[in-house]
Amino acid sequence: MKKLTLFIMALLIVSSLTACAQKEDKTLVIFQNKVEINDVLTTYATAWGLANDVTVEIKTCGGDSCAYGTQILAEFQAERQPDIFVIEGMGGYNVYADKVMEFTGDAWISNTDLEFKVDGKVYGFPVAVEGWGMAYNKTILDAAGVDVEALKDVSQAEYKEAFDKIQAYYDANSMSDYAVVSMAAASGMYWVTGLHNFNGYLSAGLEYSDNSIITKLLAGEVDDARLAQLADWFELLKTYGDESILTTGTYDDQVGKFADGKAAFLHQGNWTDSSYATSDFDMGFLPHATMATGNDSIFIGAPSYYVMNKDSKMTSVAKAFLEDLAASAAGHEYMVNQAHMVPAFNTVTLIPSTPLSASVMAWNQSGKAYAWWQNDMPSGFGMETLGPVYELFAKSETTKVEFIAQIKAAIEALK
Length: 415
Known about the structure:
This protein is of the alpha+beta class and 415 residues long. The chain has 16 helices and 13 strands. The protein has two domains: 27-129 and 302-348, 3-Layer(aba) Sandwich (D-Maltodextrin-Binding Protein, domain 2); 131-300 and 368-412, 3-Layer(aba) Sandwich (D-Maltodextrin-Binding Protein, domain 2), CATH 3.40.190. Strand 1 (27-32), helix 2 (38-51) and strand 2 (55-60) form a beta-alpha-beta unit.
């Protein structure tokens, strides 16, 4: 009898341990980098988990307060690794290639043109479509006599003429606290310059699939003509930019100036849409004039991708979560109306209610898009190498000639 009792107790212990293990196995951990969607993603994920009898845990690291690249490495060393995490293009893939699992046979792949591929194999689910251009305040442009439509296929000379008109309008109306351009270039904002602004060098004026310039960059080769035109464009933005924001401003300073209706143009993207709830002017995107002439598109792409941890024991659940995100009405509602994103999936029919996201969708649907190649640069090259070069020029601590020479040297050092 005593042996039987001990046997039953052992069975109960094993059963309890098994139940705990099964419970743990039913937790899907997602580690992501978009702070602005943390709350709505958590709400969606919690509801999805309840409907599918799993627990979905969202972990978020990003923005000014948390370095995603550093923290994800710590997550991989933790007892419970993420099942889904985020990479940003080839730079991120090269860092985490040994942790990323290939997607095979997933239905969502045929529903997008922006899946992340390496050597023809699919590794990344596009989180969203994002875009940036020159966000504009139509009220200011109209008052200054600047025709928005005329700037949709634009040269640097035409932008200078528009900038001069706007500055003259400010001067005539004693609007000394208004800016023609709101752009930040100081430390902490290097992604605006070393990634986004520099991407014009990589893709402006080219067909969407044309990767010739990024290929040359990775080989340490410079296109001198394109680099000179990029420098001319940044000099123009620098000349007409709010000096304080340009040299010391934060994200909030840069976006806030535009949101308050005190800047004609903003060098940012549609991810800033949540800042305009109380803004009372029409806005949209116009192209950057990275090239001297012929700029007729904005920069549109998938900035980041959900990837699966190949060591995860939850891959089937991870696949189901992502498939429902792409294909279900609830997933579409979350992406468009809750997270205010532009979905990367062709079957989504909802139109964003937020102005800059709606503008990105309109440019994209009209086929006016330049590619994103900045995330294919070597890890750290944009923000750690190019960002400080931009900052020195923004602060007039270097000349345009020195700016060009420093960028050229940095590219050639990649040989």
